[in-house]
Amino acid sequence: MYYRCTSLWLVCLAAIALVPTRAGAAEPLTLAQAVQRAVSSSPDLAAETLEGDAAEARAQREGMAAPWFVSADIENFAGSGAFSGMDSAESTLRLGRVIELGGKRVARQDLGAADVARRHHATEVARLRIAALVTARFIEVVADQQRLQLAEQHVELARRARTEVERWVQAARNPETDLHAAELALTDAELEREHAEHELASARVTLASTWGALQPEFESVAGSLSGLPEAPPLEELAKRLPESAAQRAHLLEAQVSTARRSLASANARSDLMMNLGVRRLEAFEDHGMVLSVSMPLGSRSRASLSESEADAQLAATQHRRDASLADTWQALFEKYQELVHARTEEEALRLSMLPRSEQALALAQRGFDSGRFSFAALTQAQNTSLALRRRAIDAAARYHTLLVEVENLVAIIPEPAP
User: How many domains, the chain?
Assistant: First the structure.
């Protein structure tokens, strides 16, 4: 079964999955591969699938017709006087069955079908939840790869700056304090790289854990955070809320309660228990037919209580559905505002702030090379540029993650084909 989560999310994920980040490296892991591994090995999904299988078996069992039964009894034997031994014994062999009235079997079949549909939907929701979790963790690995690349560039800049400062100090153009500052900046950059390395290692382990691996068997993932996809308008997303997976879960729960009530109403009509058999009378060496019919009393009052229970469950489900719709709308609104802000921040950084910081860095580098700017001015320009580039990575990663969360809130799982 596939999800109609709107094509936007799928396009977004495809963009993340198909753009390689390292040339010449070992075969990188794609998002599609990560999702497939997690879905195929998830114990939660396996449990949900087995629950669905159990629901199908239960529905088939409960939908079967009432069974036939055979009974036998012997009377008037091993007594005293004329009833001693087996001479006066009466043996009866009966074939019987409960004759269900009121459409009970159809009601049970309807209840079983409703429960199966609910279980299958829960399985698809679990599959969707796993896909969203893997995607969020995949995005974090992509972001950490870019953060590590930026940290490596920082180390290279700091190393070149230290070499240049050492040359100028030896030429007595710069004070020795600049060399100490350059060495501190290099050490700080190396610590930053080390931090980025273990952050990436942790993100890779976290991603691999979604399919049960203790150690990641991949070296890198294929992805890029550049090129943010457009998000649909909030009004369009809000229109999907009544049909979202969470709302459909409440609807299916309501259908189960309705089916239970129909079964309770059917149980208001008592069933007939009929037996037909043959009796052997040893004293006369003759046979006779035996017919018995019985009907339980009090079915109406019991059914009324079951109907009241089902009505209360149905009303409770409706209230939960209304509360869930309000809560989901609030979460959607909040995440959408964060999504818009993340896009605004990323575009401001990419289109305005980063170009200006690069210009300032180039000016500072030229000024330092010509002796007009101090090493402190160069370091400040480098740090500003690197900080803005880190913010751009963070903003892009946050946008992609929020887009997945937003689409997950309004994801629509269509009804299975008949």
Answer: 1
